Each structure stands twice: as structure tokens, then as C-alpha cells.
Amino acid sequence: MQGKSLHRKMEAIPLLSVRWGILGTGWVSTRFAADLLNPRSSTPVRHKIAALGTSLEVKGASFISTLFPSGAPDSGKPKIYTSYSDVYIDPEVDIVYIGTPHSYHKEQCLAAIAAGKHVLCEKPFTINAAEAEEVIAAAKVKGVYIMEAVWTRFFPLVLDLKKMLHEDKIIGDIHRMTCDFSLQKDMENLPATHRYKDINLGGGALLDIGVYPLMWSNIVLDGSVGSSASTPEVSSTMVVIDGVDHEDVVVMKYPETNRVGVLTASLRAKGTEEFLKVEGSKGVITVSGPGCSLPKKVKIQVEGEEERVMNYDHEAMGFRFEADSVAKDVLEGRKENLIMPLKETVRMMRVMDGIRKQGGVVYPQDEQR
Ligand SMILES: NC(=O)C1=CN([C@@H]2O[C@H](COP(=O)(O)OP(=O)(O)OC[C@H]3O[C@@H](n4cnc5c(N)ncnc54)[C@H](OP(=O)(O)O)[C@@H]3O)[C@@H](O)[C@H]2O)C=CC1
Ligand SMILES: O=C1OC[C@@H](O)[C@H](O)[C@H]1O
To answer: Which segments cross the bilayer (predicted)?
Structure first.
């Protein structure tokens, strides 16, 4: 009897599964999908890609051939739809992942919600705060889950850094930070229709990469999200070419704590591996990585102590941390995520609306209001 119950305890607990429908076959969808399928040593959930929405069959076939080894059985592969609408109505899709240019996010979120699907939508959630509020209201009415895919927030490095700064206070009182995300793009020679340049696709640096320094300033200078976060004073300037921002400089000041941040984003500069520096009363912390969205190394210099370096290597690219968190939420019946709550999305969109107002970037979606 005892033996039997012991045996039962050792039986493997079946992993719960979520089924994804992916929209778009571009840069981010390809990497997100590869991370979903990457086998991991430990995982709270099994991810299946049930469907793929793409403009062209041939793009879908190539997407699938990069994800699955040749000879893999067709039964494990997603269905390819050449109309995104078919992804929304596929009964085998639980969560729709939106990996298309910014300007499509609102209508695609609304369509997926209307079909009763849960949604993970790439950053920036929408073009402006008014659009974000409309989407969130629709998800609430329909009773579905939705989250903005701010993947960086889910990295163990970020969770550790928050603890070091705000709970353990290892560098004492935080005074200031600088953060930069620069992607050297050949802006002059990119076609006018490229998503970095086209105002109709939400082009420019702020919505594409400026969101990350803004995220870091919230993590470092505040530490709370959504309705618990404090409101910083924001001043900014932008270099605007053909209507979209190629360079952004933002100064954040938190009047309650006297903390300040200088944030930059550039589609022209190259940037450096070390993208974040935080200075406090007892020391300095720097964070580096291949980009501001992909932190890999934390260097801690505390006065009177030996310098410490913490390297964070993880399996695949790192999309799996957010994907696991979303899947767990959905399986456990939550309607939003605690690490990236919807109020944080709206708060960030409002900050970006204000920065664009100061810098003079107006999207067609702003004028429709
Ligand atoms: N979290 C992260 O690290 C990252 C997030 N992103 C976000 O993801 C979104 C997509 O970015 P990214 O993958 O770099 O973009 P890409 O241009 O590489 O891919 C976008 C895909 O969207 C589909 N699409 C639909 N309509 C259009 C259109 N008019 N123009 C271009 N593509 C269209 C296409 O897929 P198809 O033809 O197959 O339908 C295309 O491949 C952006 O909102 C961006 O901010 C981007 C990079 C990294
Ligand atoms: O989120 C992003 O991070 C990486 C960049 O290459 C990309 O343009 C941006 O959307």
C-alpha cells in the first residue's frame, strides 16, 4: 500500500499545454516561435504553435522550415493561413501572438479579442494611449487575457536587479541613471516604406526602441508598475526627419525621491555593449548586453568592496520567460500579468504620447481622435 502510494507520487505530472497562433513571419515572430519550441531543461508548460498567419504561403513555408528539422512529422507543424482572420477563428488556438508592425497592433488585437482569443501583442502595444485604452476595454468586456510583450521585464537578471536596488539597496540611495538603446540603421538608404521610416507604420525610434530605456527608468528609479508607480516629470527632445524621430533624448525626474535619469534612443548611433549605468550613494551598477532589450551582464562596484560581475546565460534567446509567464496566467485563469500589468502599458503609452508631443511626432492615428 505504502509502496503503491510512493510509486504514484513519483509518476511524472503531465505538462499543461497552450496553443499559439502567430501573426507575421518577420524578425521577432521567427525568434519568438523558435524560443517557444526550444526544448528546455525545466519548464512549467508545454508550448505548441498551432497556426501561423502570413501574407504569403511561401513565407509561411520558409518560416516553418527554419523552425522544424527536415523530416519532422507534419502533425507537429502549424497550419499556415494566408489570412490573419483564419488564425483568430481557429478553435485550436488559445493565444494569438502579434508580431506585425506597430500600426497593425490595435486592429489585430481587437479582431483576436472579438474572436474570444487571449492575446500577447508585441511592444509598443499600440500607437498611442487612446488606442491602448480601447483595446484593453475590449479585452475586459470579452473576458480575455491580454499583455504587451515587454519580454525584457521577465529576465531573471531584471528580477534580480530590482531586488538588489530596491530591497537589498546594495548601492544605497539611488541618485541617477543613464540608459541608451542605439541601433545603427542605414536610415538614408532604407526604403520609405520600411517600418523604421514609414509614419503610417508607426516609424521612428521612440516606439520601437525608446520603450526600453523608458522601461529601465521605471525599473531602476521607481521599481513599481501600473497604478503603484509614481509619476515622473518628463522633458525631451527629438531629431525628426520626414515626420519620424531618428534620435530621442529624454530626461526623467522623480520629484518624490529626487532621482533623475537621462535616456537616449537612436536609429543612427551604434551604441555600446554597456547600456545602463545606475549611481547610488554607495556605488555603481552597470548592465550590458547585445542590446538594451537583451541584458546579459551586471557589474557591481560598491565602495570598499571588490567588484562583482554576474553573467546571465540562458537557453535560446529569452522570449520563453515571458511566454511561460503568459501561458501560466492563461492556464490559471488570470486576465492580466503581474509583471507587465495593463495599467503599466497605458502609463508608458501616455509617457510616450507626451514625449512625441514635445518632439513634434504626430501619427495619423493621433489625428483620428
Ligand atoms: N520584443 C522584441 O524584442 C522585438 C519586438 N519587435 C516588435 O515586433 C513588431 C514587428 O517587428 P519586426 O519583426 O522587426 O518586423 P518585420 O518587418 O521583420 O516583420 C513584420 C511582419 O509583419 C507582417 N506584416 C504585415 N503587414 C506588414 C507591412 N505593411 N509591412 C511589413 N510587415 C508587415 C509581415 O509578415 P507576413 O508577410 O508573413 O504576414 C512581416 O514579416 C514591431 O511592433 C516591433 O516593435 C520587433 C523586434 C524585436
Ligand atoms: O524591440 C526591438 O528590439 C530589437 C530591435 O532590433 C527592434 O527594432 C525592436 O523592435
So the answer is: none
- Within 6 A (CB) of ligand 1 lie 24-29, 54-56, 59, 99-102, 104, 122-123, 149, 151, 195, 208, 293
Give 18's contacts (C-beta < 8 A, 6+ positions apart). 45, 46, 47, 48, 94, 95, 327, 330, 331
Whether 10-151 and 156-313 share one fold: the answer is: no
Question: What is the CA(165)–ligand 1 centre distance, in A?
Answer: 34
Strands 146-149 and 118-122, bridge-based pairing: parallel
Protein residue closest via CA to atom 2 of ligand 1: 28
- Over residues 202-261, the pLDDT tens digits come to 999 999 999 999 999 999 999 999 999 999 999 999 999 999 999 999 999 999 999 999
What's the pTM?
A: 0.96
* Residue-range domain boundaries for the chain: 10-151, 156-313
d(CA 288, CA 291): 8
Tell me the fold of 156-313.
Dihydrodipicolinate Reductase; domain 2 (3.30.360)
> Is 10-151 in CATH node 3.40.50.720?
yes
